[in-house]
Amino acid sequence: MTVGEGIRNVREAKGLTLKQLGDRIGVSPSYIHAYETGRRKPKLEVIKKIASALEIDPEYLINAEFNYKRAMHMLFLIGETYGAEFFTIPKKEGEEGEEKIAISFEMLNPCLKSWVKQKQIHDKKLKENTTEPTLERRLTKNRQIEAEYRKWMNNFPAEEDPKVVDLLEDYDEFTHSIIILTDDPI
After folding, report:
1. What pLDDT is recorded for position 89?
2. Are 21 and 13 in contact (CB under 8 A)?
3. pLDDT at res. 164
4. What residue ranges of the chain have pLDDT lower than 50?
5. Torsion sign (Cα): 19, 17, 153, 100
6. pLDDT at 82
7. Residue 63 neighbours by CB under 8 Å, 6+ apart
8. For 156-169, b where at least 16 C-beta lie within 10 A, e where not — what string?
9. Is the peptide bond before 157 cis (omega within 30 degrees of 0)?
10. Which domains does the chain have, with CATH numbers?
11. Chain centroid to CA 79
12. Is residue 69 within 8 Å of 143, Cβ to Cβ?
């Protein structure tokens, strides 16, 4: 995802037009469109203004252009900061492929639990979206479901979700969360 795609995703998830976002930061809709399409690359100060106008953390847009190298460097940093523990998950009997490698980020457990819950809700909604009579309506519904999920991610941790706040306050140091690092399903 590029910075521009990130801007567009959040803008659309929040139901804003190009003009509305442009008005919030003092530029024309054509500037916003140029950022979203990649014709112009916003400077850091503009990204911060856009993020503020969209009520999101600027990091979401700054780190939008992500690849495997950046992902690994972020994992290195997260591991150093939040205590990473590595282990393998043995293959099930008769299972093909290599063992799965996993990381436990003990200190992030409450946040990861909240993310898992939201991802499960998101996936369930997508799976159940088969009742719409036409393909166009199913696609529209899928875009709405994706926008809801992106909105949750952009606003994490949501202050209106006291369970997450409680989890963060009542952190249990003996529990772990796992991020699977392979594409193979468990």
Report:
1. 86
2. no
3. 56
4. 170-186
5. negative
6. 83
7. 70, 74
8. beeeebeebeebee
9. yes
10. 3-62 (1.10.260.40), 68-180 (no CATH)
11. 19
12. no
